[in-house]
Design a protein that fits this description.
The complex is a heterodimer of chains A (about 220) and B (about 220). Chain A has about 220 residues and is mainly alpha-helical. Chain A has 13 helices and four strands. A two-stranded parallel ribbon of chain A has the order 1-4. In chain A, helix 5 crosses helix 6. The longest helix of chain A is centred in the N-terminal third of the chain and has 15 residues. With about 220 residues, chain B is of the alpha+beta class. In chain B, about 30% of the residues lie in helices and about 15% in strands. Chain B has a five-stranded antiparallel sheet with strand order 4-3-2-1-5. In chain B, helix 1 packs across helix 4 and helix 2 packs across helix 4. The two termini of chain B are about 25 Å apart. In chain B, about 40% of the residues are buried. Chains A and B meet through helix 3, helix 4, helix 9, helix 10 and helix 11 of A and helix 1, helix 2, helix 4, helix 5 and helix 6 of B. Strand 3 of chain A pairs parallel with strand 4 of chain B, so a sheet runs across the interface.
Chain lengths: ~220, ~220
C-alpha cells in the first residue's frame, strides 16, 4: 500500500463500503429515482406503497391456502364446493383479490398428479399463496414443467408412479390454479389446525407432497 | 411476440432450485419495484395485458440475464415513458440529481393508502360481463392457430398448430391478444384445453401426461 493510501485509510474504507454495499447498485438507484419522480408527480402515494408491501409480506401468503386445504380434508361438503367453484369456496374464507379473479382447485389423487406453472410470465394465485417464490418465476421451471414434468418432480423428490397421470396446468389466462394435495396417511387424529400446519406452499403448486408429522400416528 | 418470455419447452437452464425458507423479497429495491408497479397499475393508464406485453419487449438476452422484478421495472419504465408520464430522460436525470425537474402530470387518479385494501379486494382486470355465446363446448376437439404475431399473445409457441380437447369453459373474458395490443377488449369465452404430451412433444413424451392451457375462442378452430 502506498503512503498516500495509508494516509487516507479511513476514507478508503468508506469508499470501499459504498462500492460493495447493495444501496448503490444500478437497479436500486433506478428504483429510487423512479419512486421519487412518481411521488413528485403525484402519481404514487408513498404510504400506499408501504401498505401494498405490508399486505403481501405479512398478511397474504401460503397459510391462506393451507387453511383451505385443511378444511377440504376434514369437510367433504366444503371440499366438493371447492372443487366445483373454487372462487366462491375460497371467498367464504375472505381470500379474494388481485391475481385470483377466478380460482380453479385441482385435486391430487392416486390416479392424477396436478402441478401448476405459468410459462409466459409467472401467474400465481396470490390470494391463497401470496407472491410466487423465485424458482417458480425462473427459467428452469417455466421451461421444463411442461416438457419434462416427471423429471422436475423427480428432482424435487416427488416420485409419481408410472401409471399415475400427470397434468400440468399452464396459467395463460387470469384463471388461477391451486392444487389440493393428498391428505397423508396417519393424520386421522389431527385437528384442522394441525393439518393446516402440515400443508406447504410447494404442495399447493404440485411440486411436493404433504408429509405426515414426524413421530407418525398420534 | 416470439420473445424470451415464452419459455415453455426450452432446454439448458439447469435444475429447478428451491430456496429453503425463502423470504417474500430478497432486497429492499424489490419491495419498492413491486409496490411501484402495482400502484402505477392502479392509475388505470394501461391494462394488465399491456403490462405483460411491456415486459415481454425486454430484449431477449437481457430478459434471460435478469430477475423477475427487473422485468417488472423494465415494463413499468417503458409504459411510463411511452405514455408520457415519466420519460427515460427524466429518470436518467433524477438518478444523478435528487432535485432534477419533474414534468407535471395532470388528471391522474393515484391510489392512496386508505384505499389499498379495497382496491386489492375488488380489483377486476379481465373477467367480462358481456353475454357472448361460446364457439366451443367441453369435450370438443379443437386445433390451435399456427400464429406468430409480433404483438402480444397468450398462445405459447409450444402449443401452436396443436390438437386438443376442451376440458373447462371458464366463461367470458377480455381477449389479451387484442387488449394487450391496444386493440380493444373483444370479450369471448376462455377454456382450459387439454393437450396430450405426445401431441406437444412427440413420441418421446409420456403417454400418461397432459398439459392444460387456457385459450380463447379466437385461438381455436374445430378439429
Amino acid at each position: 500500500m502506498s503512503h498516500e493510501h495509508h494516509h487516507h485509510h479511513h476514507d478508503d474504507d468508506v469508499q470501499e463500503h459504498r462500492e460493495h454495499g447493495a444501496p448503490l447498485s444500478e437497479v436500486e438507484l433506478r428504483v429510487r429515482a423512479l419512486e421519487s419522480l412518481l411521488v413528485d408527480k403525484g402519481l404514487v402515494d408513498p404510504a400506499a406503497l408501504d401498505a401494498l408491501i405490508d399486505t403481501y409480506e405479512t398478511k397474504v401468503g401460503p397459510r391462506n391456502g393451507a387453511r383451505i386445504v385443511a378444511r377440504a380434508w376434514v369437510d367433504p361438503v366444503f371440499k366438493q364446493r371447492l372443487l366445483d367453484d373454487g372462487t366462491a369456496a375460497v371467498a367464504e374464507h375472505g381470500f379474494v383479490g388481485r391475481q385470483s379473479e377466478k380460482l380453479v382447485v385441482v385435486e391430487n389423487t392416486a390416479q392424477v398428479h396436478n402441478m401448476v406453472v405459468c410459462t409466459l410470465c409467472s401467474c400465481y394465485p396470490w390470494a391463497v399463496l401470496g407472491l410466487p417464490p423465485v424458482w417458480y418465476k425462473s427459467a428452469p421451471y417455466r421451461a421444463r414443467a411442461v416438457i419434462d414434468p416427471r423429471g422436475v418432480l423427480s428432482e424435487l423428490g416427488v416420485a409419481v408412479p408410472g401409471e399415475r397421470e400427470v397434468r400440468v396446468w399452464d396459467s395463460t389466462a387470469e384463471i388461477r390454479y391451486l392444487v389440493l394435495p393428498e391428505r397423508p396417511a396417519g393424520t386421522e387424529g389431527l385437528t384442522e389446525e394441525q393439518l393446516a400446519a402440515l400443508v406447504t406452499r410447494d404442495a399447493m403448486i404440485g411440486v411436493a407432497t404433504v408429509a405426515a408429522p414426524a413421530g407418525g400416528r398420534r | 411476440m416470439n420473445g424470451a418470455h415464452d419459455l415453455g419447452g426450452m432446454h439448458g437452464f439447469g435444475p429447478v432450485e428451491i430456496e429453503p425458507d425463502e423470504p417474500v423479497f430478497h432486497h429492499e429495491w424489490e419491495r419498492r419495484a413491486f409496490a411501484l408497479s402495482l400502484a402505477a397499475g392502479f392509475l388505470g393508464k394501461w391494462n394488465i395485458d399491456q403490462g405483460r406485453f411491456a415486459r415481454e419487449q425486454m430484449p431477449p438476452a437481457e430478459y434471460l440475464a435478469t430477475t423477475y422484478y427487473e422485468h417488472w421495472l423494465f415494463g413499468l419504465q417503458k409504459l411510463l415513458n411511452d405514455l408520457g408520464l415519466v420519460s427515460h430522460g427524466e429518470l436518467a436525470a433524477r438518478r444523478t440529481n435528487p432535485a432534477s425537474p419533474a414534468a407535471p402530470v395532470t388528471g391522474a387518479r393515484r391510489l392512496v393508502a386508505g384505499d389499498v385494501e379495497k382496491a386489492l379486494r375488488t380489483s377486476r382486470t379481465s373477467k367480462a360481463d358481456e353475454d357472448v355465446p361460446p364457439r366451443h363446448k367441453v369435450g370438443d376437439r379443437v386445433v390451435t392457430g399456427n400464429i406468430h404475431p409480433p404483438g402480444h399473445t397468450r398462445l405459447p409457441r409450444y402449443a401452436r398448430g396443436k390438437r386438443g380437447v376442451v376440458a373447462l369453459d371458464h366463461g367470458v373474458w377480455v381477449f389479451p391478444d387484442t387488449a394487450g395490443n391496444g386493440l380493444g377488449r373483444k370479450p369471448q369465452h376462455c377454456y382450459s384445453v387439454r393437450f396430450e404430451a405426445r401431441e406437444l412433444w412427440g413420441a418421446a413424451a409420456g403417454t400418461r401426461d397432459a398439459v392444460y392451457i387456457d385459450l380463447w375462442d379466437d385461438h381455436l378452430e374445430p378439429a
